[in-house]
Amino acid sequence: MNVLVVDDSRAMRMIVSRTLREVELVDGISEAESAEAAIEVLGSTPVDLVVCDWNMEGMTGLELLEALRAAGWTTPFGFVTSESSDAVVDAARATGAAFLVAKPFQPEELRARVEAVLSGSASVTDAVHNGEDDRLAALRQLLTGLLRRPVEAVAVEEGPPRQSARWLARYVDPAGAEVALCVVEMPLALAAGAALSMMPMSEGTVWAASGALPDALAENLHEVTNVVAKLVHVDGVRCVLSGLDGFAPGEQLPEIEAIRAARAHESFEVTVDGYGGGRLSLVTL
């Protein structure tokens, strides 16, 4: 089986491709960083299965599937995505997707879905929703699943200190209103970003001191905070990541007044096995 993996996150393409190789289900793997690039690959390379992200810059994964079906393509198509709402599952099913696997996923789950494609019995079933009310346990579970290594988390009173470099993730509701934030201290941003791609931490102290992340690690952190969106629910409405920005030590966050007036504010000390960690705060505006 030849598989095309489509995701605008290089780290997620690597994780999905590595998982497929680990379970020895495929003969060859091609990658595309966008739906548009995927169309080019499909025009020149035999592909038996497309595994695609849902939210991407430009054409979305669902729009790619719709375009392929409209053009007469019948190749099996599955989603690996942080989206798992009933509306997303229904849209995937209605458009003819073979499966939908929610990030973070276990290798066995993806294997089972791909094996179902091979046997001709694949179908989109209801995605598994995280039913935990305890966001501490949910955060630990999500990061452990995504980074594929033990992650410990404990609740703390204070978020990342102002004198440290921080990253700010913004989440919006379906109407586009900014409703939640995630603040990540630089050491944790570095640890999570490096762990996602299994990068060595040899230059970690230099990056941490500078308050900047290399592009590859910033891209990985984007994927981490994208998955953390699963914990962000405002009045029962699931929110999505809209942006991620870094701030130097001592630099004031632009949303500081909104943070001070926030409806809810939870902070955690998070440690990634073998990489270290730091503080993370979830803020409901």
Record keyword descriptors for this entry.
Chemotaxis protein chec, Rossmann fold, 6-stranded antiparallel β-sheet, 5-stranded parallel β-sheet, 2 domains, alpha/beta, 10 helices, 285 residues, 36% helix
Set down the secondary structure blueprint:
Layout: E1 2-6, H1 10-22, E2 28-32, H2 35-42, E3 49-52, H3 61-70, E4 77-81, H4 86-95, E5 99-102, H5 107-119, H6 135-147, E6 151-156, E7 166-172, E8 178-185, H7 186-196, H8 204-210, H9 215-228, E9 233-234, E10 237-238, E11 240-247, H10 256-260, E12 264-272, E13 276-284
Parallel strand pairs: 1-2, 1-3, 3-4, 4-5
Antiparallel strand pairs: 6-12, 7-8, 7-11, 8-13, 9-10, 12-13
Helix pairs in contact: 7-9
